Amino acid sequence: MEAFHGAGWLAHGFHMQAHSHTDGQLVYAASGVVATATAQGTWVAPATRVTWTPPGFEHSHRFYGLTDVRLVVIPAESCAALIGHPGVFMVSPLLREALLSMTDQQKSRSAQAVDRLRAVVIDELIEAPDQSLHLPEPRDDRLRAATELLRLDPGQSATLAELGRTTGASARTLSRLFHDELGTSFIRWRTILRIHHALAHLTSGRSVTDTAIECGWSNPTSFIDAFTAIVGQTPGRYQATLDPRGM
C-alpha cells in the first residue's frame, strides 16, 4: 500500500466512524483538538501532541473546533520502531515542522523527499515521551457504570461513595477497580476526563473562567494549575495558539 499523507480542515464535531488500517497512522491537529477512541480507551490531542494508531487497531476520531488536521501514514514495515499500541506523544518543534512540511498541499515533493521527512518523524517519535491524555475503558460493569455517570456530567462533584450507592459498589471496591483495571486513581481519571472537556470548551471559544466552572473546578486558579500540569501550557496560552478560524 502506498503511504499517504495529506491535510484538510474539518468542522467542529466531525466524527470519523470506526475503521482500521493495514499501516500505522499519525493524526495531528495543527489547530483544534482530535480525540481518538479505541477499545483500549480514548486519547485526546491538542496541537502539542500527535495521536498514533498502529496497524490493525480499530479506531474512530472526533474533532473539536475547526480543525487543521494533518494525516501521515507510516508503512507497516516501518512501524516496528514505534510502540505497538495506540498512544499520544509530545510534539517537539522539529516534529511539528516535519509533520506540517510533509502534509503541505502547496508544495510538491518527490517520493524520496517524503521518505526523508517520514524518517525524521519516526526518529522524533522514538525520542518523544508518551504523554497521553488517555482515558482507559473499564471492563467491570460497576466501574463502567460509574465512569459513564462521570462522562455524562464531568463537572459533578460526586464522591466515590456517592457513585457507589448508584452503581451498587462500595467506595473501597470502586477505588480498587480504578487502580486495578485503569491503572490510575479515581481523582486522576476524573481530572483527565475534565481536561478532555476543557480542551473542547476552550477550542470552541469559551473563556477560561467559564470552562473552569463548567468542568468542575471550584476556581480558575485550580483549573489553570491542573490544565498546565497535564497539557504543558496554560489555558490562556493554549487558546492564544489556536488558528482564528477555529474560534
Summarize the structure.
The chain has 247 residues and is an alpha+beta fold. 41% of the residues lie in helices and 24% in strands.
Description:
This is AraC family transcriptional regulator. It comes from Mycobacterium aquaticum. Keywords: Transcription, Transcription regulation. One of its GO terms (molecular function) is sequence-specific DNA binding. Residues 144-241 form the HTH araC/xylS-type domain. The chain is of the alpha+beta class and 247 residues long. It folds into 2 domains: 5-133, Regulatory protein AraC (Jelly Rolls, Sandwich); 138-246, Homeodomain-like (Arc Repressor Mutant, subunit A, Orthogonal Bundle), CATH 1.10.10.60. It is 41% helix and 24% strand. The chain has 9 helices and 8 strands. Strands 1, 2, 3, 4, 5, 6, 7 and 8 form an 8-stranded antiparallel β-sheet that branches. The longest helix has 18 residues, at 186-203. It is globular and about 60 Å long. The two termini are 37 Å apart.
The ordered string of helix (H) and strand (E) elements is EEEEEEEHHEHHHHHHH
Roughly how many Å is the radius of gyration?
Answer: 19 Å
Shape verdict: globular
The proportion of residues forming helix, as a percent range, comes to 40-55%
CATH architecture of the largest domain: Sandwich
The residue-averaged pLDDT reads 89
In percent, how much strand structure appears in the residues? 15-25%
